[in-house]
Design brief:
Number of strands: 2
Strand content: under 5%
Shape: globular
Order of helices and strands: HHHEHHHHEH
Radius of gyration: 18 Å
Helix content: over 70%
Distance between the termini: 59 Å
Strand order of the largest sheet: 1-2
Number of helices: 8
Largest sheet: 2 strands, parallel
């Protein structure tokens, strides 16, 4: 039963990543969020395949899984997330060169952090993950407040809930094992995958609300820094 719930949670996250990631690109041209969502979904797909093939730590799929994990925890669902959401909070869209650079930074971070793979605790990287998540949470609290001020209080509350759940997962990830969990951390990863899928769904809906609010109130659409400089 535990393994089945883990697979269902992973499938949910995969669906949320690909579906809402594509919606970000198709509807809003937001490649930062769209591609990051799809990267998370790809990570989930790799994790699912790795698990179905036996979950061998020596497998190349495990190395890929660790890379994707480090990619998103270090830069993806931190800096890239914040920059992507700024399209509706500050009507700012970075130029393409910045988009490319931030994904390259995330890839570099993922490759560098490969050296810390394994089951033992590495305090430095683990602390780094918690710190960048905490900084991102501060922005997301502001994001929720912006939603609240538009009158979308239900969306604001759910966004705050998703953010709090994701922060709890980030803190628990390395430092606080779930009591009664097995050696593969099945309970933790089930909760984590379900939370990350929920997070991607909720942030897309919140983004849509702020985008519509900006359009209704006549706020200017997001523009790139290059276009702003030429204006």
């Amino acid at each position: 039963m535990k393994d089945l719930l883990l697979m269902l949670a992973d499938l949910w996250m995969i669906f949320a990543g690909f579906f809402f990631g594509w919606q970000f690109i198709r509807r809003y041209g937001n490649y930062l969020l769209g591609l990051e969502w799809m990267i998370v979904a790809t990570s989930g797909s790799n994790f699912l395949l790795w698990a179905l093939l036996g979950g061998d730590d020596d497998s190349a799929l495990y190395t890929v899984a660790y890379f994707f994990d480090a990619f998103s925890r270090s830069v993806g669902i931190t800096l890239i997330l914040v920059m992507g959401l700024m399209a509706v909070t500050h009507r700012y869209k970075p130029p393409v060169v910045v988009d490319v650079a931030v994904f390259a930074l995330a890839a570099g971070a993922g490759l560098y952090l490969q050296q810390f793979r394994g089951h033992e605790l590495h305090v430095g990287p683990a602390t780094f993950y918690v710190v960048v998540n905490a900084l991102t949470t501060l922005f997301l609290a502001y994001f929720s407040r912006r939603l609240w001020k538009t009158g979308a209080r239900g969306h604001a509350a759910v966004t705050a809930l998703a953010t709090a759940a994701a922060a709890a997962i980030a803190i628990t990830y390395d430092f606080f094992p779930v009591p009664g969990d097995d050696e593969h951390r099945t309970l933790f990863y089930t909760a984590a995958l379900a939370t990350w899928g929920f997070q991607m769904c909720v942030y897309f809906r919140a983004y849509r609300v702020l985008h519509q609010h900006n359009a209704t109130t006549g706020a200017a659409p997001a523009v790139s820094a290059d276009r702003a400089a030429r204006a």
